Amino acid sequence: MGQGGDAAARRMGRIASHLRPPPASQMEEVSLLGGSNCRAKGAAPGFKVAILGASGGIGQPLALLMKMNPLVSVLHLYDVVNTPGVTADISHMNTGAVVRGFLGQPQLENALTGMDLVIIPAGIPRKPGMTRDDLFKINAGIVRTLCEGVAKCCPKAIVNVISNPVNSTVPIAAEVFKKAGTYDPKRLLGVTTLDVVRANTFVAEVLGLDPRDVNVPVIGGHAGVTILPLLSQVNPPCSFTSEEISYLTTRIQNGGTEVVEAKAGAGSATLSMAYAAAKFADACLRGLHGDAGIVECSYVASQVTELPFFASKVRLGRCGIEEILSLGPLNEFERAGLEKAKKELAESIQKGVAFVNK
Ligand SMILES: NC(=O)c1ccc[n+]([C@@H]2O[C@H](COP(=O)([O-])OP(=O)(O)OC[C@H]3O[C@@H](n4cnc5c(N)ncnc54)[C@H](O)[C@@H]3O)[C@@H](O)[C@H]2O)c1
Ligand SMILES: O=C(O)C[C@H](O)C(=O)O
After folding, report:
1. Which residues line ligand 2 (CB under 6 A)?
2. CA 146 to ligand 1 centroid distance, Å
3. Could you confirm whether 289 is annotated as catalytic?
4. DSSP alpha helices (H): ranges in 235-331?
5. Whose CA is nearest to atom 2 of ligand 2?
6. If you take atom 6 of ligand 2, which residue's CA is the nearest one?
7. Given the CA of residue 276, which atom of ligand 1 is nearest to it?
């Protein structure tokens, strides 16, 4: 067979392997099979990314956005429900990344093996009247199990933790990795990007600017008073009245609750969160890729305060976090906010650490 014939045979092989029905007993395994021994045919060069909790309110639009990211060559979608449908759907998008689905705990290891970046939005969301800490009981165990899988199958991956309460789930992940002997604080990042996204939007509204031109650092953590926007450090430089500061701080701190109440029992922020998570994941990938000057706010192991974890600006690079930037000058209002934030954060961190070591 000539060269053209070889190519045609290879194409027919790919079609046939798609059309041939697997034995019923292997249906799930074959249709969802991925893992390290499956070569990504036709995949663009790039990074391997797994989303754990990919069938959820955040997971599905996040999968869509990651499938569109040119830095992603392989996209693994893992959940305990519905990944066959989500994977089939996303896989029809004519973008470069090859998509594979994984369903249920027995497929977690295949989902994780070889990954460069693992994004975790698995877990239950809030309903009106709940705090993020009310999610701890269920989500702490989910995050622990998933991170045990990461430690075993892709210990060098960058991990983006979205599952709430982030102030506790990131310390949980750290403790799991410490126990497994794989902990690298540079590779574990709590996703607080939605706070920055909201702050940029609300500040731009007040200033009459395009939100894409506004950058507000948000430090501390990701719950209530631990969310501390630094309105004295907004870019472009600007000033606010005390009424504006009070309105903006409250609105940014309650952004999540605003959505939870508007959804009236149907969950919390999913679409804006998927946008924020995709933006943050893209920053992590650009860092891994070697791009310079990538700075994002994130909740990470930190020495900028006396607390072991804190959200602030971090510079991302080939190994994850390359530098944690200093907080810069805070005004009196922000210093008072910082004290309140630290008090609540200390308790949330301790709760996470104790959960793994009990
Ligand atoms: N960090 C942030 O800024 C931020 C923003 C919004 C939501 N969240 C949090 O993200 C989490 C997910 O929110 P959502 O709206 O997507 O919820 P959701 O209920 O719509 O989806 C969660 C998904 O997780 C899956 N899941 C549950 N247990 C799992 C396990 N053991 N392994 C893998 N997958 C599992 C579920 O099957 C579901 O598909 C919540 O904890 C929410 O509070 C965080
Ligand atoms: O508010 C929530 O419970 C979800 C998330 O943390 C958010 O900020 O939207």
Report:
1. 125-126, 132, 164, 194, 222, 255-256, 259-260, 268-269
2. 12
3. no
4. 242-253, 255-263, 271-289
5. 256
6. 256
7. 3
Site to substitute for ligand 1 among 164, 176, 270, most atoms within 8 A of C-beta = 164
Q: pLDDT digit of tens for each residue in the chain (358 aa)? A: 455 667 666 666 666 555 544 333 333 333 333 333 333 455 457 999 999 999 999 999 999 999 999 999 999 999 999 999 999 999 999 999 999 999 999 999 999 999 999 999 999 999 999 999 999 999 999 999 999 999 999 999 999 999 999 999 999 999 999 999 999 999 999 999 999 999 999 999 999 999 999 999 999 999 999 999 999 999 999 999 999 999 999 999 999 999 999 999 999 999 999 999 999 999 999 999 999 999 999 999 999 999 999 999 999 999 999 999 999 999 999 999 999 999 999 999 999 999 999 9
Tell me the C-alpha distance between 172 and 189, whole Å: 12
Q: Which residues line ligand 1 (CB under 6 A)?
A: 52-53, 55-59, 79-81, 121-126, 135, 139, 142, 145-146, 162-164, 166, 191, 194, 222, 267-270, 273
Give the closest residue (by CA) to ligand 2 atom 7. Answer: 256
- Cα of 285 vs centre of ligand 1, distance in Å, is 22
